[in-house]
Design goal:
This protein has about 900 residues and is mainly β. The protein contains 4 helices and 55 strands. Among the domains are: about 65-155, Ubiquitin-like (UB roll); about 675-755, Outer membrane usher protein FimD, plug domain (Immunoglobulin-like, Sandwich); about 755-889, PapC, C-terminal domain (Immunoglobulin-like, Sandwich). About 5% of the residues lie in helices and about 50% in strands. The relative contact order is 0.10. Pfam families: PapC_C (PF13953), PapC_N (PF13954), Usher (PF00577).
Length: about 900
């Protein structure tokens, strides 16, 4: 037996709060000892040494048999909370052990060859640790955690912020509705006043059931011009269901979809697809997503669409913009529309072709699809087809890829090879042959076309020169070559048009650190056999420098040319900005295009991490102008507002809202949005409102019901949710402030934080016979959260107290009496006075949690003893009822 008799006399002068904390610390620090600890209570300055209960500290690491709610830590990687049972193994009498259930063992992500060798106990419900030598399991009630230490050799591949598939969560069943709304009102003042009102929106509605995600995309537009009829539309543009198949590392989709291909052009169809999902790979092995750059002449709305379906829209301030958060699953050409406040519209296309198609050695990636081509109004527009493609990593340098698309009157096949050139970059080359039989064309009747398409792609980062060719590609198609999308368009219209010939794409970045200069060039050139060429050039230069006491000044130049249908749209934008104030910046901007030029002075500032604004004034050819732009990330939605006035031309105002609703069994929450229909985490703080939470964006707070939804969540990525302790309300305490886990695509994750909120008070606990609970007894609220520990003579410091609360006092491993708090609690300035609370031993009902969980903040709870004369201070003046007659005898 181990005793505490070695503690010397000076310890007697330690205050009782520190002494209780020391006892707890000593008991917890002795976990390496298997034997039971015996406390020498003679050293305690306690009036009644016979009335002491330290059983919970007597055996280090000991937990009573029962059910516990723990966060799981596997070699310091945290898993979400789950239930863990403690059982007494066969042949033992008093030592319980954690039961690692088959479900929990699956989340360990053991190597497959180890699974048949595992041994079990408790009727096959619990893993025998003898199966995995070197494995240790320890439960810690103080932080509600179960620590599992495993040799790394037993585990599958893991990476920073990425978990193997065995640890992915499918989330809870639920429903969601996400929206992105934009509204604009303007008045043209040139040539008579005309008021125009327009609104547009898009979003996703969905339901999650187990591993399945059901989604429906919607979009709407409304235009009202003075003197003309209102035009409006609301369309459900896409219905589909999908799920992750972890064992294949693939995504299965049923319903309306777009052909996802790195080889063939994309088109819309209804059917099914099975695609290797690169998002399931570690982040450093994932793919490439397109980006969109341009220059807005005013506060503008940017709408990105593909084959009639809006896939992205946002409002941008005047000047250059860069959209980099498009989904990397996009393929083929996408259309970009920049709608200015004066009614003018820029349109151009962006090709989303990916970087060279290379695959890791020994890995096989594939994409399979079958169905019927359809348009965005759900009408069938072609015969049944099937398609498939693959990429195989032959060795460390070579990849082989290819595939085909086949229908009754159309067939194409491709084969290509990719080569990692190491210090010289990566290169790929492929050839595609297509044969198309068209019927009933307007001019030529029935006709069969066939031809080849050749593509060369290159990518390279030149680290020594601080530059990168993000993507460079060349494609040439013979006149008889038709892609599936071209074939479908010709068959539906009766005319073959926009027959592609050549395409060049280049994206290049260059850094000059010694000059503080960076350059970005983007070039797109498309030629046709039967149409004029299309070109898009853009150049961006940025330089940072200091002038005397002025630091961090910057100059930015953006120039572009869009050539479409033999018409040029040229423009340039120049700005000089310098810091102004603590978080603001002042800039001088000039922009030029064929129709107008303007000069502006703008001021930008951040009010806080959620809010920023920009004010501008200046002049153009037609006169002076004033504009403003405001952005706020509220808990319920992201809000953008703008207004512009241009002398003798127009005045306008705009507003956009982005957010959503998420509903699960635990509640319904309105929240701001991120990726429409995407992954999210529903957070519950035990009904305590105004708790600050952080994901990867700005802080949000729980609503009146103590709930919130975080949408800045990445699929197949270890996401972290934390309580912001710096801004936590003073009357709230949280036992564990960080929780993390990995969710599959589209999942609704659930994280619950045990939050104790309410007043604090010093109390004197008394039993019906005028005695007091034993020293070391624990006090729990109705949720099973510990809110205090009994000190000498029943003196107890209590936290998280609310009117009408019921508290239970535990010793000898069970609830012994119950306290009912009054309807009115003392004011905050009276909480330091001892408060007399009777503890009734009759009619005790079980608390919510059958297990006793010690919260992490209880190790330092004071258990002060106060002179008995202070009992007389408790009176009706404090808002409490007088002590009962049995206590006054």
């Amino acid at each position: 037996m181990m005793a505490l008799g070695f503690i010397h006399m000076p310890l007697l002068r330690v205050s009782r709060p520190r002494l209780m904390g020391l006892l707890i610390a000593l008991s917890l620090s002795c976990n390496s000892y298997a034997e039971q600890i015996e406390f020498n209570t003679d050293i305690l300055d306690v009036n009644d040494r016979a009335n002491i209960n330290l059983a919970q500290f007597s055996r280090p690491g000991f937990l009573m048999p029962g059910e516990y709610r723990f966060s799981i830590f596997i070699n310091k990687h945290q898993l979400p909370e789950q239930t863990v049972f403690y059982y007494v193994p066969d042949g033992q009498t008093d030592e319980s052990e954690a039961c690692l259930s088959p479900t929990l063992v699956e989340q360990l992500a053991l190597k497959p060859d180890l699974l048949p060798t595992l041994k079990w106990w408790h009727d096959g419900q619990c893993l025998s640790l003898e199966s995995l030598p070197g494995t240790e399991v320890k439960g810690d009630l103080a932080v509600s955690a179960l620590y599992i230490s495993l040799p790394q050799a037993y585990l599958e591949y893991t990476a920073e912020n990425w978990d193997p598939p065995a640890r992915w969560e499918d989330g809870l069943p639920g429903a969601l509705f996400d929206y992105n709304l934009n509204a604009q009102v303007g008045q043209q003042t040139r040539g008579g006043q005309r008021t125009n009102v327009s609104a547009s929106g898009n979003g996703v509605a969905g339901v999650n059931l187990g591993v399945w995600r059901m989604r429906a995309d919607w979009q709407m537009r409304l235009d009202k011009q003075q003197g003309q009829d209102t035009s409006s539309s609301l369309d459900w543009s896409r219905y589909y269901v999908y799920r992750a198949i972890k064992s294949l590392g693939a995504k299965l989709t049923l319903g309306e979809d777009y052909l996802a291909s790195d080889i063939f052009d994309s088109f819309r169809f209804t059917g099914l697809s099975l695609i290797t999902d690169i998002n399931m790979l570690p982040p450093n092995l994932r793919g490439y997503a397109p980006e969109i750059t341009g220059v807005a002449k005013s506060n503008a709305t940017v709408i990105v669409s593909q084959q009639g379906r809006i896939i992205y829209q946002t409002q941008v301030a005047a000047g250059p913009f860069r959209i980099q958060d498009l989904n990397d699953a996009l393929s083929g050409e996408i259309n970009v529309e920049v709608k200015e406040q004066d009614g003018s519209i820029q349109t151009f296309t962006v090709n989303t072709a990916s970087v060279p198609y290379l695959t890791r050695p020994g890995q096989l990636r594939y994409k399979l699809a079958a169905g019927r081509p359809t348009d965005w109004r759900h009408h069938v527009s072609g015969e049944t087809f099937a398609s498939g493609e693959f990429s195989w990593g032959v060795n460390n340098g070579w990849s082989l890829y290819g595939g085909g698309v086949a229908a009754e009157n159309y067939a194409s096949a491709a084969v290509g090879i990719g080569r990692d050139l190491m210090m010289f970059g990566a290169l790929s080359f492929d050839i595609t042959h297509a044969r198309s039989r068209l019927k009933g064309l307007t001019e030529v009747g029935d006709k069969t076309y066939h031809g080849n398409s050749y593509r060369l792609s290159y990518s390279k980062r030149f680290d020594a020169y601080n530059s990168q060719v993000t993507f460079a590609g060349y494609r040439f198609a013979e006149q008889g070559f038709m892609s599936m999308s071209e074939y479908l368009n010709a068959q539906s219209t009766g005319v073959r048009q926009y027959s592609n010939k050549e395409m060049y794409t280049v994206s290049y970045n260059q850094q000059f650190p010694e000059l503080g200069l960076s350059a970005y060039i983007n070039y797109y050139h498309q030629t046709y056999w039967d149409q004029p060429d299309n070109d898009r050039y853009s150049l961006s230069l940025a330089r940072y420098f200091d002038i005397g006491k002025w630091k961090n000044l910057s100059v930015n130049l953006t120039a572009y040319r869009n050539r479409y249908q033999q018409t040029n749209d040229d423009g340039a934008y120049l700005s000089l900005s310098l810091p102004w104030g603590e978080s603001g910046s002042l800039s001088m901007n000039s922009s030029w295009d064929e129709r107008d030029n303007s000069q502006r002075v703008s001021y930008y500032d951040r009010l806080d991490e959620r809010t920023n604004y920009q004010l501008s004034t200046g002049w153009s050819r037609s006169g002076g102008l004033v504009s403003g732009y405001y952005t706020h990330q509220a808990d319920l939605a992201q809000i953008n507002a703008n207004a512009t006035y241009q002398q003798d031309r127009y005045r306008s105002a705009g507003l956009s809202l982005q957010g959503g609703f998420t509903a699960i069994k635990q509640g319904v929450v309105m929240h701001r949005g991120n990726q429409l229909g995407g992954t999210r985490i529903f957070v519950d703080t035990d009904g305590v409102p105004n708790i600050p939470l952080r994901g990867y964006g700005s802080t949000i707070r729980t609503n009146y019901f103590g709930q919130a939804v975080l949408t800045d969540v990445n699929s197949y990525y270890r996401n972290q949710v934390s309580v912001d302790l710096n801004t936590l309300p003073e009357d709230a305490q949280v036992s564990q402030s960080i929780k993390q886990g990995t969710l599959t695509e589209g999942a609704i994750g659930y994280r619950q934080f045990d939050v104790v909120a309410g007043h604090s008070a010093m109390a004197l606990l008394r039993l019906s016979d005028n005695s007091f609970p034993p020293f070391g007894a624990q006090v729990f609220n109705i949720k099973g959260q510990q809110v205090g520990m009994v000190g000498d003579d029943g003196s107890t410091y209590l936290t998280g107290l609310n009117p009408n609360d019921k508290l239970q006092v535990h010793w000898d491993d069970k609830a012994q009496c119950e306290i009912t708090l009054p309807k009115i609690l003392p004011k905050s300035d009276t909480l330091l006075t001892n408060w007399l609370l009777p503890c009734d031993a009759t009619g005790i009902l079980p608390i919510e949690q059958t297990q006793i969980v010690v919260e992490s903040n209880t190790a330092s709870l004071p258990s002060l003893s106060t002179p008995h004369s202070l009992i007389s201070e408790v009176s009706d003046k404090s808002g409490l009822a007088s002590s009962p007659s049995w206590l006054r005898k």
